[in-house]
Amino acid sequence: MSKNFYITTPIYYPSAKPHMGHAYSSIVADFFARFKKIDGYKVYFLTGTDEHGLKIQRAAEKKNKDPKSFCDEISKTFENLTKTLNLSNTDFIRTTEDRHKKSVQNLWNILEKNKQIYLSKYSGWYSVSDEAFYNEDEVEKKNQSKVSKSSGSIVEWVEEESFFFKLSEWEKPLLEFYDKNKNFILPESRRNEVISFVKGGLKDLSVSRKTFSWGIKVPSDGKHVVYVWLDALTNYLSSLKYPDENNDLYKNFWPADLHIIGKDILRFHAIYWPAFLLAANIEPPKRVYGHGWILSGDEKMSKSKGNILDPLEIINIYGLDPLRYYLLKEVSFGNDGNISEEKLENCINSDLANNFGNLCQRVLSFAEKNCSSTIPKHEFNNDDLVILKSIKDIDKIRSFIDNQDINQYMSFIVDRLFASNKYFNDQEPWKKKDDKLRLNTIVYTAIELIRKITILLYPVMPQSTVKVLNAFNINENQIDFLSLQLDEVLIEKDKINKLDILFKKIDK
Ligand code: ME8
Question: What separation in Å is there between the alpha carbon of 311 and the centre of ligand 1?
Answer without folding.
Answer: 15
